[in-house]
Amino acid sequence: QVQLVESGGGVVQPGRSLRLSCAASGFTFSNYGMHWVRQAPGKGLEWVAVISFDGSDIYYEDSVKGRFSISRDNSKNTLYLLMDSLRPEDTAVYYCTKGVVVIASYFQHWGQGTLVSVSS
Amino acid sequence: EIVLTQSPGTLSLSPGERATLSCRASQSVNSNYLAWYQQKPGQAPRLLIYGASSRATGIPDRFSGSGSGTDFTLTISRLEPEDAAVYYCQQYGNSWTFGQGTKMEIK
């Protein structure tokens, strides 16, 4: 079955960087678009970024443009999110989600999430 | 950006009752690209409905979605205690945005 396992979260000071990883299994990773979605403590869901199956199309939510970078390694079945210049408002659980073949996709499967806490 | 507004904010009903959750979009949702998710405390969201009305794999037929354009509805017939959760709508036809959620309480 589909499994998405995030890692790399933790406590980080404002202005520092962090890289999240998502290990995928149970499906042909290289065929699907992948997204990151976040949820601040006690708040709703917010889409963060998407990467197409081959990495040729990438889009970001406005508040993270220029600071976050999504990438993937299809040979390792792994999705990444490099987060630079972190701000306290980036504090959230970050979920790796699997879309469908096309990039305009709902989120079919979700990982368990990894918590990022930005605090001095 | 398409803004999704969900109502009511909280819904409190008894087991066996029917729940109707609303999601209204600030502009028409392309191709009815509208999904619904269920999130229980401490868990990741789970896909319930996509394409406004198609049930995801393994979702009981008590859950149904309807609507088009700017007005969408999630209906849960015959509520069960395990349906207590927060429900989110999401559009994926023009970027990706979520509603603020409806909290379902089971009396």
Please characterize this protein's 3D structure.
With 120 residues, chain A is mainly beta. Chain A is built from no helices and eleven strands. Chain B is mostly beta strands. In chain B, 0% of the residues lie in helices and 50% in strands. Chain B contains no helices and eleven strands. Chain B has strands at 4-7, 10-13, 19-25, 34-39, 46-50, 54-55, 63-68, 71-76, 85-91, 97-98, 102-106. In chain B, the strands form two sheets. In chain B, strands 2, 4, 5, 6, 9, 10 and 11 form a seven-stranded mixed β-sheet that branches. Chain B is globular and about 35 Å long. The interface between A and B is medium-sized, with 18 and 22 residues.
Q: Cα distance, first to last residue of chain B?
A: 36 Å
Q: Detail the poorly predicted runs of chain B.
A: none
- Strand proportion of chain B: over 45%
Give the overall pLDDT of chain A as a whole number: 96
Number of strands of chain B: 11
Shape of chain B: globular
Helix content of chain B: under 10%
Oligomer: heterodimer
User: How many beta-strand runs of chain A?
Assistant: 11
- Helices of chain A, by number, come to 0
Helix count from the secondary structure assignment of chain B: 0
Q: What does the largest sheet of chain A look like?
A: 7 strands, mixed
Q: Provide the helix percentage of chain A.
A: under 10%
Using the CA coordinates, give the radius of gyration of chain B.
Answer: 13 Å
Summing up helix and strand content along with how strands pair, one would put the structural category of chain B as mainly beta
Percent range for β-strand residues of chain A: over 45%
Short description:
The complex is a heterodimer of chains A (120) and B (107). Chain A contains no helices and eleven strands. Chain A is mainly beta.
